[in-house]
Each structure stands twice: as structure tokens, then as C-alpha cells.
């Protein structure tokens, strides 16, 4: 029986980061991964690097470059002639990006002394981990500490069974070899909008069927409303309150039945993507007597420090409460590794940014205006449009705005929400400010480079207190 100070189950962003940090702290560490890639080798990196964040961003970037070359360069005086897209070449490049990033994890494991173990991990009683290899061979690891980072999987729905041919999940949607003439997407959340954007830019007619009556309910309402207008202008057909009731494959197409505005409807698509959310991958992960408990939704129950009910066993990432975000899981992994090493650190869950990588990007951190209203917290708002930012005008990319929320009395920043070019990077400035308890005035008094897109963050902070320079300020509410 092999003995380790730390055994990590899962090599996604939460698991591999936890393993590397634990090893850096001098702990003998192993990381178990059961998935294999297209070359039938261990697939380090989990969902994010293999079939999630990274490949989807590769396709988003490729498709946007195609769209820009085809439709948006004329204003700069650039003539391109006929522009084509080689979809198999685009997919091949995406696979190359994945291979490069996942291979990098293997190199980091080697450099830091992490032992990578192929197989499916299961937590047993007494802080032991059972590893079942692909050939069925079973071995047992003895661990002083266990970190569960098993991740999540797409939610399946009975009306639309995935066959990864005509009806696919988010993984299958990354491997289309040709552009669907008409593409249906069940779910208009983050994944649906990103994947829908990819194929819409390349020429697909995209219809998103969303069961909820509200669009992007987790996003600040003003930003979500702006996003809805932008996506409609881009050609995405988002139908809210559309509940899929059944699917039928007919002559290599899929006929989708759904209810919409109290009417029974039917529509035929060349491909259908099912992306209605993800669920924790906790099934078969825990022996009944291991002491680790699940909540009613299948998430592993943990406290604020990611400790389970069993001493010495932790869980991080998508398999525990909180947003299913790679960066959230990674930081939980670091926190747990540090705590195992005896460093009493904690994680600030109030400062986790979220991003939708459409174009324009949508990003936010902290409270939305709706949440502040519901919580009865007095607040003030500052907004600033990118159309008034010189760098955005020069780049011909002026869609969107920055919205800053601060406490009415203390001026402390409570949230920031952005729709616009580079929103993912811009919001990080506010994440740092919030981490240090900054006020809107603090950002307003900070020198920002000119001309930059980040000046929109500066001006929104100034606008919170009626001090914006490059647009008229709103009159304060009495």
C-alpha cells in the first residue's frame, strides 16, 4: 500500500492546483485522474482544460476572428475579399491548444514532484483511497489527508437524450466538423450563449430555448437587459419560457417539441446542443462508511474551509457549494493545501468574479443591484458607456458599459458589472480593489492610463459620487 501526505482525487483546476501547492509546501502528494484524451492518454486538466473553458475559448476566438475579417474590417479601410472558414482546421487548432495546456500540467507535476495516478478514485473509511485502473486493477492508497476535486458533469434531460451525433452536450458541440445550417440550443445560460455565439458567427441560424422567463437571472438586471439587446442584434434568437417536451430524430435532423407562450410548438434543427447546467460528480465517489456526507443535490457538504464531516478529508471545486467556476475551485485548492500545511488562511467568497466569454464579454463581481435591493442595503450607482471611451472608439468596439455599486454611507465598493470588450480583464481591477476594502472614491483618485478601456472603470467609479468627467452626471436622488 502506497502512503502519501495528500491524495487528490481529480486533476481539474481545483485538483491539479491543490496538488501542486501541496507539493510545493513539502507534502508527498498524489493526484488521481480517471479520464483519458483522444490519444488514449491520461487527460490531466479536468473538464476545464479538456472539454470546457479552454477549448470553448479557442473556438470563440477563432470564430470571432472569422466574423471580424468577414464583416468588421471594412471600417478600418481593410479589404479582405472572400473570407472562408475551414471548420476541421479550426477544430484541429482547438485540439492543439488543449494538448498544449494539458501537457503543461504534466510538466508541472513532474517539476513539483506530484505523482500522477491513472484510475477512478473512491474514498474509503480510515482515509484510504481505492483506485480502479482502466483494466479493472484495484489498488489502495493510504493518505494522511484527502482532497476531493472530482468536478462536475453536464445535466441530462429526458426529453433530449444525448447521442453525441445529432443531439450533443457541451462536449460534443466542440467537435462539429461542419457548420450546422440551423442549430438549436437548450439553455440560454453561460454555456449556451458561448457555444451559440461560436456557430452563429460562422453562419448557423441559432435558436436558444430557455425554460426560465428571465434572461441571465444571476447577472445584474441592467447588464442582462443590455446583453439581450446586443445578442438579438447579433442574430441569436433567444426564446424565454420555452420548455422542451420531446425530441425525435428524422432523416439526420432533430425535431424538437416545446411549449412557448402556452402554445405547443415544433421546430427542426440540424444539430441540437443540450446545456441546461452541470451537476456534481459525486456518484460512486464515496464509500458509505467514509464519513463524508452529501447534501440533497449531491454536493459534498463542507464548511467555509472546505472541510468535510470526516477529519482530514476536504472537498473543493464543482463538487461543493458555490459557483462552478474554475478559478473558484483553484483558490479553494490552494486554501486547503495551505491549511493542511498548518497555515490558517481563508478564502474571500465575496470577491469571486464571473465571466461570460461572448463578444462583448459580460463580467461581474460582488452584489448586483437586485441583490442589494432585496437585502435592504443602501447603495449608490455609477455607470459609464464605452461609447465615451476614446480607446473603444478607436478600436470600433464601443458596445456596453461599466456599472459600479457602492454603499450609500461608506462609499465602499459592493459590486461591479461590465458588458463590453475585455470585460473579463477590466473587472479584475475591481476584484483587487474590493479585496482591499476600497471605496469608489479610491478608484476615482487612482491614475488610469489614457487612452485605455480601463478608463471606463475609472469614470464609473467617479460617477458613483457624481464626479464623472467625460459625460454628464446623473442628478442625485433626493
From TrEMBL:
<dbReference type="InterPro" id="IPR016156">
    <property type="entry name" value="FAD/NAD-linked_Rdtase_dimer_sf"/>
</dbReference>
<keyword id="KW-0560">Oxidoreductase</keyword>
<keyword id="KW-0676">Redox-active center</keyword>
<keyword id="KW-0285">Flavoprotein</keyword>
<dbReference type="InterPro" id="IPR004099">
    <property type="entry name" value="Pyr_nucl-diS_OxRdtase_dimer"/>
</dbReference>
<dbReference type="Pfam" id="PF07992">
    <property type="entry name" value="Pyr_redox_2"/>
</dbReference>
<dbReference type="InterPro" id="IPR036188">
    <property type="entry name" value="FAD/NAD-bd_sf"/>
</dbReference>
<feature type="domain" description="FAD/NAD(P)-binding">
    <location>
        <begin position="4"/>
        <end position="333"/>
    </location>
</feature>
<dbReference type="Pfam" id="PF02852">
    <property type="entry name" value="Pyr_redox_dim"/>
</dbReference>
<keyword id="KW-1015">Disulfide bond</keyword>
<dbReference type="InterPro" id="IPR023753">
    <property type="entry name" value="FAD/NAD-binding_dom"/>
</dbReference>
<dbReference type="InterPro" id="IPR001100">
    <property type="entry name" value="Pyr_nuc-diS_OxRdtase"/>
</dbReference>
<dbReference type="InterPro" id="IPR050151">
    <property type="entry name" value="Class-I_Pyr_Nuc-Dis_Oxidored"/>
</dbReference>
<feature type="domain" description="Pyridine nucleotide-disulphide oxidoreductase dimerisation">
    <location>
        <begin position="352"/>
        <end position="461"/>
    </location>
</feature>
<protein>
    <recommendedName>
        <fullName>Dihydrolipoyl dehydrogenase</fullName>
        <ecNumber>1.8.1.4</ecNumber>
    </recommendedName>
</protein>
<dbReference type="InterPro" id="IPR006258">
    <property type="entry name" value="Lipoamide_DH"/>
</dbReference>
<keyword id="KW-0520">NAD</keyword>
<keyword id="KW-0274">FAD</keyword>
<comment type="similarity">
    <text>Belongs to the class-I pyridine nucleotide-disulfide oxidoreductase family.</text>
</comment>
<keyword id="KW-0963">Cytoplasm</keyword>
<dbReference type="InterPro" id="IPR012999">
    <property type="entry name" value="Pyr_OxRdtase_I_AS"/>
</dbReference>
Amino acid at each position: 500500500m502506497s502512503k502519501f501526505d495528500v491524495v487528490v482525487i481529480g486533476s481539474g483546476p481545483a485538483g491539479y492546483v491543490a496538488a501542486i501547492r501541496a507539493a510545493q509546501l513539502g507534502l508527498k502528494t498524489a493526484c488521481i485522474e480517471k479520464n483519458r484524451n483522444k490519444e488514449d492518454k491520461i487527460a490531466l486538466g479536468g473538464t476545464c482544460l479538456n472539454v470546457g473553458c479552454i477549448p470553448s475559448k479557442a473556438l470563440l476566438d477563432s470564430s470571432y476572428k472569422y466574423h471580424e475579417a468577414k464583416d468588421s474590417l471594412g471600417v478600418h479601410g481593410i479589404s479582405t475579399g472572400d473570407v472562408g472558414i475551414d471548420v476541421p482546421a479550426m477544430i484541429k487548432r482547438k485540439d492543439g491548444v488543449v494538448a498544449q495546456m494539458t501537457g503543461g500540467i504534466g510538466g508541472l507535476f513532474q517539476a513539483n514532484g506530484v505523482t500522477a495516478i491513472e484510475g477512478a478514485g473512491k474514498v474509503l473509511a480510515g482515509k484510504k483511497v481505492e483506485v480502479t485502473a482502466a483494466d479493472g486493477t484495484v489498488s489502495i492508497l493510504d493518505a494522511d489527508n484527502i482532497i476531493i476535486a472530482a468536478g462536475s458533469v453536464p445535466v441530462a434531460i429526458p426529453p433530449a437524450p444525448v447521442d453525441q451525433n445529432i443531439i450533443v452536450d457541451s462536449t460534443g458541440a466542440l467537435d462539429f466538423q461542419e457548420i450546422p445550417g440551423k442549430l438549436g440550443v437548450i439553455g440560454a445560460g453561460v454555456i449556451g450563449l458561448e457555444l451559440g455565439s461560436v456557430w452563429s458567427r460562422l453562419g448557423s441560424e441559432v435558436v436558444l430555448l430557455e425554460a426560465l422567463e428571465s434572461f441571465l437571472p444571476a447577472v445584474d438586471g441592467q447588464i442582462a437587459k443590455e446583453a439581450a439587446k446586443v445578442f438579438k442584434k447579433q442574430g441569436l434568437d433567444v426564446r424565454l419560457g420555452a420548455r422542451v417536451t420531446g425530441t425525435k430524430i428524422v432523416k439526420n435532423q432533430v425535431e424538437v417539441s416545446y411549449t412557448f407562450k402556452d402554445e405547443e410548438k415544433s421546430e427542426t434543427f440540424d444539430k441540437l446542443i443540450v446545456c441546461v447546467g452541470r451537476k456534481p460528480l459525486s456518484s460512486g465517489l464515496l464509500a458509505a462508511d467514509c464519513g463524508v456526507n452529501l447534501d440533497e443535490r449531491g454536493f459534498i457538504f463542507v464548511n467555509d474551509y472546505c472541510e468535510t464531516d470526516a477529519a482530514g478529508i476536504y472537498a473543493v471545486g464543482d463538487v461543493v457549494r458555490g459557483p462552478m467556476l474554475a478559478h473558484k475551485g483553484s483558490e479553494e485548492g490552494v486554501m486547503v493545501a495551505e491549511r493542511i500545511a498548518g497555515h490558517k488562511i481563508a478564502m474571500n467568497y465575496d470577491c469571486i468574479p464571473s465571466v461570460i466569454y461572448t463578444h462583448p464579454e459580460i463580467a461581474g463581481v460582488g452584489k448586483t443591484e437586485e441583490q442589494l435591493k432585496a437585502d435592504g442595503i443602501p447603495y449608490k450607482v455609477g455607470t459609464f458607456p464605452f461609447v465615451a471611451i476614446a480607446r473603444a472608439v478607436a478600436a470600433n468596439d464601443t458596445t456596453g458599459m461599466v456599472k459600479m455599486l457602492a454603499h450609500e454611507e461608506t462609499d465602499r465598493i459592493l459590486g461591479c458589472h461590465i458588458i463590453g470588450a475585455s470585460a473579463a480583464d477590466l473587472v479584475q481591477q475591481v476584484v483587487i480593489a474590493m479585496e482591499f476594502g476600497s471605496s469608489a472614491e479610491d478608484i476615482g483618485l487612482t491614475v488610469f492610463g489614457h487612452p485605455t478601456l480601463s478608463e471606463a472603470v475609472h469614470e464609473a467609479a467617479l460617477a458613483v459620487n457624481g464626479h464623472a468627467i467625460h459625460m454628464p452626471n446623473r442628478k442625485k436622488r433626493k
